[in-house]
Amino acid sequence: MLELQENHGTAFDKTNQEDEKAKVQITSPAENHILATVIMADAGQVGKIAAANQAVDENVKPGQIVGIGSGSTIVFAVKRIAERNQSEKLNLICIPTSFQARQLIQDYGLALGSLETSPEIDVAIDGADEVDANINLIKGGGGCLMQEKIIASCAKELFIIADDRKDSVALGTSWKKGVPIEVLPMAYRPVQLRIEQVLGGQAKLRMASNKAGPVVTDNGNFLIDWVFDGVQNWEQVDMQLKNIPGVIETGLFLNMTKAAYFGTPDGKVIVRTK
Ligand SMILES: O=C[C@H](O)[C@H](O)[C@H](O)COP(=O)(O)O
Fold first, then answer.
1. Where does the secretion signal sit in this chain (predicted)?
2. Number of domains forming the structure of the chain
3. In the β-sheet with 137-138, what is the strand arrangement from edge to edge?
């Protein structure tokens, strides 16, 4: 029996803290025996693994340029890609969306590429903090959003993988921490004020937990989490946010996703397309 105790997700302790400790067994239908015991897993992780495996199996094809997202769920997708790469020789080039993604790609022995050499991406796979009925997303809860959005915009197809707790009718229903917004550090204060004047709600500077001061993104910027009340028109909100000088990118991923894969605690997967 193989014990799996990987921890590529230290930057994503938010998820681990939410998770209840449990022991989960995963059965391979093909070989009909226990493949792995996931220690420190929970019902959410079973869903993440199921969603990641199915999304990779259905969408990653040999010879592709693949965008690799960030977060705790993407770890399982990269693991699956690496397993398939060993047996199928997929010959992929993987483009990272963060420091974490770059490390994952290298740790799993996959070919690391960049937008400089591969500006057109076949398929991108990523996680999300919340997914609405129209597969619009809030992302950036783990501090990554700008490179993720660039990679998603360069990809012919974006697939989202998540456990079913992320599945929601309207943005803000289940994700209560607000919309993450990446801002230039020197502008964070006026940006906070402008957001609250223009859109109401609260624009909170995200503070680090193991460092004094704010969270600093992979791009050297700060993050503001905009906590809002009942938004109707997300396109308009996204435009209003981007019109504020100092705002670099938002964690609103609107009309970008081809399909979202939600894994349930019993290992089933629900696929939502538009
Ligand atoms: O900032 C982080 C990224 O946008 C993640 O993709 C998002 O937070 C989802 O992460 P997880 O898979 O850990 O729920």
1. none
2. 2
3. 130-131, 137-138, 252-253
Domain extent, residue 239, equals: 179-249
Q: How far is the CA of 130 from the centre of ligand 1 (A)?
A: 9
158 & 200 share domain: no
Q: Does the annotation mark 83 as catalytic?
A: no
Catalytic residue among 130, 148, 182, 249: 148
Are 149 and 269 contained in the same domain? yes
262 alpha carbon to ligand 1 midpoint, in Å?
14
Residues with CB under 6 A from ligand 1: 12, 15, 69-73, 126-129, 139-145, 148
Q: Tell whether 230 and 140 lie within a shared domain.
A: no
pTM of the complete model: 0.86
For ligand 1, atom 10, which residue shows the shortest CA distance? Answer: 71
Per-residue pLDDT of 237-265, as tens digits, reads 999 999 999 999 999 999 999 999 999 99
